[in-house]
Amino acid sequence: MKLKTNVFHFTPFSKKQLQVLTWWVNPSTKDSEAIICDGSVRAGKTVIMSLSYVMWAMHTFNGQQLGMAGKTIGSFRRNVLRPLKQMLAGRGYKVIDHRTDNMFEVVKNGKANYFFIFGGKDEASQDLVQGLTAAGFFFDEVALMPQSFVNQATARVSVSGGKYWFNMNPEGPYHWFKLNWIDDLKGKRALRIHFRMEDNPSLSEDVIGRYKRNYSGVFYQRYILGLWVMSEGVIYDNFNRETMVVSEPPGRCTKYYVSVDYGTQNPTVFLLWGFYNGVWYCLKEYYYDGRHSARQKTDDQYANDLDEFVGNINARIIIDPSAASFIAVLRNRHYRIIRADNDVLNGIRETQSAMNNGLIKFTDNLPNLFKELASYIWDDKASSNGEDKVIKEHDHAMDSMRYFVYMVLRHNNKAKVIKNKYF
Prior knowledge:
Elements: H1 15-22, E1 34-39, H2 45-60, E2 65-70, H3 73-90, E3 94-98, E4 103-108, E5 111-119, H4 126-129, E6 136-140, H5 147-155, E7 163-168, H6 176-180, H7 185-188, E8 190-195, H8 205-214, H9 217-223, H10 241-244, E9 245-246, E10 255-261, E11 268-276, E12 279-288, H11 299-310, E13 316-319, H12 324-332, E14 337-339, H13 344-356, E15 360-363, H14 367-375, H15 380-384, H16 396-409, H17 412-417
Helix pairs in contact: 1-2, 2-3, 11-12, 13-16
């Protein structure tokens, strides 16, 4: 089946993009066995690397198998293959997609090569590439893949003249890829090209400015400056009481949600959110710590407290899906439930962005939330082992806040498309 294509409109390439496009024919770099492109988000790495990879393969081989991997096959098709097929069609390549085999075939001037697609999402993914004999391997967002998968995939490149292609946004300085590849370029015979957003000529200054406003702290250093830095210190170091805290919204809210972090031994938190004129306000909190109180509460008692907390407000409830028994009680009381996505790191990043862009604000009646904002910190021990983790203390209001932002603000555009699913 032919892939349906549209015309890909190129802007003039930057110096670094041209280097990626031609490194395999440049006399000073063509003997390198791998290319590594790391740096900020939206820097133009993936588009130019994928095009260069296929052009190199078609120039060098005929009738060979090659590998290409993303975090998942779905993300690869969306982020890599979709623009890639447009670029190739514009350059006279015929692309045939064999979706059932997770493979696409590229043909030009009597040559044909076969590109197999893999997802490297977990340790079990290494089993998928066993048995493949490859002439090259391309990894999109390799820092998100387990080392076992990448090791197995690189081991499959056994055809003479084969090369590796890696792109990624930075993680921590002790990440396995940083230690094994970037810190050993000479040993790996690898070429590294470090990108910033300014290296992508298709981005305007306004767009670059918007991305810079979206990130704070460690995420700003990694995704904007492109640095491999450790996650440490207070997580929401962007919190500014002067600009983010108000006595009350300037008008009457028109939509409401309650986000819930449920605990038995740990605290249970309700946060009420109201929408007014483009901003979500955290209006009030409920915070009950059974461990430090005289007694534990049952699900029905918490549901009674929620009834009182919500009152006559028409609000949906966003709650961690692991709270199965409490969800059942709430459904019996006819609450409309949204099961939260408990993606901690992406949730933190989205919440920082919402704070930076003035999409969420807080009333001054949230004492426990403010305490946690000042004491919610990164786990230094995990960072020294190459992992980004939060310390699971003083995090219950933080989890509740994150559930709300990730399920409402992040999905807002989707919600408008899918018949107002969330509103």
